[in-house]
Amino acid sequence: MNDNLPATGYLDMELLRFTTAGSVDDGKSTLIGRLLYDSKAIFQDQIEAIEHASLKIGEGDFNLALLTDGLRAEREQGITIDVAYRYFATPKRKFIIADTPGHIQYTRNMVTGASTADAAIILIDARNGVIEQTLRHSFIASLLQIKHIVVCINKMDLVSFSHQVFEQIQSEYNKVARELGNRNIHFVPICAKLGDNVVERSENMPWYSGPTLMNLLETIPVSGDIDVSMTRFPVQYVIRPQSDKFHDYRGYAGRVASGIFKKGDKVKVLPSGLTSSIRSIDVFGKTFNEAFSPQSVVITLEDDIDISRGDMIVKENDKPVVSNEIDLMVCWLSEKPLLSGNKYAIKHTTADVRCVIKEIAFKLNISTLGHDESIKEVVLNEMARISIKTTHSLVYDSYNKNRITGSLILIDEATNVTVGAGMIIADEVST
Fold first, then answer.
1. Whole-model pTM?
2. Are the C-beta atoms of 338 and 357 separated by less than 8 Å?
3. DSSP assignment of 326-353, as one string?
4. CATH number for the domain harbouring residue 157
5. In the listed set 315, 341, 370, which residue is the last one of a domain according to the structure?
6. Paired sense of beta strands 274-283 and 296-301, if any
7. Is residue 1 part of a domain?
8. Does residue 276 sit in the same domain as residue 406?
């Protein structure tokens, strides 16, 4: 009998997901290319491919931005238009990078890339300081509950590596951060093109004594961000082997969304409200004493009760919301506008239901943080607060408490295209 799931070597390394955001030409793709290049995370054939691509588009130097601008259209335009994901590791941590576009018309892409991020790198051109796009990206990061913000003030070489410029931009951004309620903010002066303070410390800025960007990414605390008191286990599949060896076996497979489940815990199944206790926690024929986020396991219960896909197992004293009337902030991803009365399919954790749009409360002006309550529709890349009514009750938490059980997507039933990304607002708990 093992107490925990086995963990060894590379597979057990802590993972940090982070996104990059900034205005066009702030150097996001170049920064990511520099991180990969200086951390020796690029294969020789990739380097040769980028050298060839640099020559093809008339770049005399090795263009690090092409490592993330993977689409041909991006390379030809010199901009990022898609969310480019890259994976690499250092001896201390594994990383998943989402390089998102800077254009306003690709707001939906940034929301997609940032939705699972633990940290956000916001780039600011040292020559321009805090601009409208800085406010927009900072607000989205705040709305998506990204706990760690790293403000990289880039192109310091173009302002003569000025300490005064760095401090001025830092002061400007802190005003924005206070307005948005952001707390864990780090500032790093860098030159992505030359590599200053990215992986190696800069000799051009001796006045900066803080960590390099890579050192910061390797040491940002991630495990402490997980709320272990909120136990959520969305049931994905009911396992009934129908064999002589496992004649009476009934297991509930899924991924632990948050918290820790232990053998013997008293649990409640929602939305039915039926209670039982955990008999075993199984993985590939082995039994363990506990399971925690984000492990995928099979849970068996002492009582034979009716459980199906979309139900959620929680500890008996936990109180997520159970309701079919839900308020949420939505980022609209479709060219077909969102209108009151429209009907959509919804995916929330493992649950599939249908809904109708009851009300569009207001549309959010991300540039000014103002509310427009006179609107009748929400169009592509816009964000709004809406109310929906679902065909069956969902079990959820507010997004600011649990990003997994507090998020959902809206789907056009005619085309099966995802048209909206929603962040649930829940002020009260179920009784």
1. 0.81
2. yes
3. EEEEEEE--SSPEETT-EEEEEETTEEE
4. 3.40.50.300
5. 315
6. antiparallel
7. no
8. no
pLDDT for the residue 71: 40
In the chain, what percentage of residues exceed pLDDT 70?
82
Question: Quick check: 309 pLDDT over 50?
Answer: yes
Structure confidence by residue, pLDDT tens digits, 251-267: 999 999 999 999 999 99
pLDDT interval class at 227 (50, 70, 90): low
Whether residue 129 is found in the same domain as residue 273: no
As a whole number of angstroms, the longest Cα–Cα distance in the chain is 76
Dihedral, 194, 198, 201, 202 alpha carbons, nearest 10: 30
Same domain, yes or no: 194 and 268: no
Structural domains counted in the chain:
3
Tokens representing 137 are 């990206």
Amino acid symbol at 207: W
| Cross-strand bridge partners of residue 95 | 16, 88
User: Tokens 């309701």 appear where?
Assistant: 323
Question: Quick check: is 2 in a domain?
Answer: no
Q: Which residues of 343-359 are buried (b: 16+ CB within 10 A; e: fewer)?
A: ebbbebbbbebebebee
Paired residues of 329 in beta bridges: 385, 423
Section 390-404 average pLDDT: 93
| Separation CA 211–CA 219 (nearest Å) | 10
Amino acid at 10: Y
Cα distance between the two ends of the chain: 38
Q: What is the pLDDT of residue 431?
A: 38
Cα 9 to Cα 84: distance, rounded to the nearest angstrom: 27
346 and 241 fall within a common domain? no
DSSP code at position 127: T
The per-residue pLDDT of the chain, averaged, comes to 85
Tell how far CA 111 is from the center of its chain: 8
Quick one: what percent of the chain has pLDDT higher than 90? 54
